[in-house]
Amino acid sequence: MNRPSTSSVSSVIAPLSSLPDFDPRLVPVVGVDAHLPAVSGDRQTPQSLRARFAQPPRWEPEVVLEKKFMNREPAHASVLLAVVMREQPMVLLTERTAHLSTHSGQVAFPGGRADPEDATPADTALREAQEEVGLAPEFVEVLGSLATYVTGSSFIITPVVALVRPDCVLAPNPYEVADIFEVPLAFLLDPANHRRHVFDRDGVHREWFSMPYQDGPKNHFIWGATAGMLRNFYRFMQA
User: Fold this and answer.
1) What is residue 231's predicted lDDT score, i.e. its pLDDT?
2) In 3D, which of 45, 44, 80, 83 has the Cα closest to residue 182?
């Protein structure tokens, strides 16, 4: 889904967040990928993750390009796909504050736009993670990067995968981050938790994944670019 093609970027469409009464939670689920194999637990250990990135397999990202909704010059950005090395490996995610102009209230990785001073995508991801959630670089072991993901707003995002020590101390930036939470890596690498959505309006066809995670009384609705990059991480790990 959402493979690069001339037709997918031939015209600018309205962002979903601008559509009246749009709520991704209410868009029908057209499929769940329970028929695909989950990544086995022995591949999710720190040692296995280090080995996989040291010698990456041949693989194909599944989600790489959103339909364009903004005419602007492409800009590079990075996010940190941080695997916290607990007894059960966990992935660190944030919920953005409601007042932000883009992706307000949505689940996201720590990350953002590259600065001229950043030498590498990993530098961007580490800097942004420290600015957003207070994650100091000394707690982080960068493993490598996944394929870039291009958003409808022309951000070319590099997901940087890293291991994070569980004794890290986090301090979220209250302007950008409303909540920090963790999701089991095993949950995200099991396609039985990957739901497919299709949305058609005004002749425009859009598809995306969601991975809703129930954390006690709260449901974290992971969807859009974040879910797309996690789906690519699944493909990388299962290859």
Assistant:
1) 98
2) 83
